[in-house]
Amino acid sequence: MKKNLQNFTGSLTVKRFFRPRQILLLVLSIAIVAIGPYLQQQLVKAQSVLPSEIATGNLWREASFPVENFEAYTSPFGPRGGDFHYGLDLAAPEGSYIRNWWGGQVVEVWEDGRCGTGAIVRSGDWEHIYCHLRGRVQKANGGRYYTDGEGLQIWQGQVVPAGARIARVGMTGRTTGPHLHWGLKYGGRWVDPALVLREMYSHQS
Ligand SMILES: [Zn+2]
């Protein structure tokens, strides 16, 4: 309750700088560039972990569908063969682009035998995870970065806007075909990405 009140006060403070009727449009246009991560954090914090309960629906207009050349949903979030599948699989042509779901900071890029080449972007309390990327993780100048091998690089610590091309679909790690394994966490807890996509669509005309 205390948290909610603080956030409410926070958004009132922001509103004083703008005409109330224009606040949503202004927030949408400005957020990506400069104060995005801060505003998103404030707004997201005021929300529950269930996307369907989110009151400020316009927020989702900023979010980007995570693949450019979507073909099919090939595996849902949930139990799978005695295991649990912590993400949504989106099939797309190998080498096609992956788009950053929401503006944030690249907090980790890595390689392992399961996710393959992977990246995590943090946006406020949200973390979005991208697996099976085409390309490698490399080190330079004391930093780590993902590269698709064709000029695209994203560095650990880098800020990336929503919709930015951050990687390419590949087949690294455990996969039988080219797809993006897309995971979402809110406040450290896994969220079904399909629920988030549904919310996004219901607020996009
Ligand atoms: Zn998967």
Structure overview:
The protein has helices at 2-15, 23-31, 36-45, 193-203, and strands at residues 72-75, 78-80, 83-85, 88-91, 97-99, 104-112, 116-123, 126-131, 133-134, 136-140, 143-147, 153-155, 159-160, 165-169, 179-186, 189-191. With 205 residues, the protein is α+β, with helices and mostly antiparallel strands. The strands form four sheets. Strands 1, 4, 6, 7, 8, 13, 15 and 16 form an eight-stranded antiparallel β-sheet that branches. Strand 7 (116-123) and strand 8 form a beta hairpin. The protein is globular and about 40 Å long. The structure holds zinc ion. Zinc ion (ZN) binds next to loops.
Order of helices and strands: HHHEEEEEEEEEEEEEEEEH
Counting DSSP H or I runs of 4 or more residues, the number of helices is: 4
Overall number of strands: 16
Q: How much of the residues is beta strand, in percent?
A: 35-45%
Cα distance, first to last residue? 33 Å
Residue stretches low in confidence (pLDDT < 50, at least 5 long) are: 1-18, 23-50
Structural class: alpha+beta
The shape is globular
Mean pLDDT: 81
Ligands bound here? zinc ion
Rg calc? 17 Å
* Main beta sheet strand tally, sense and closure: 8 strands, antiparallel
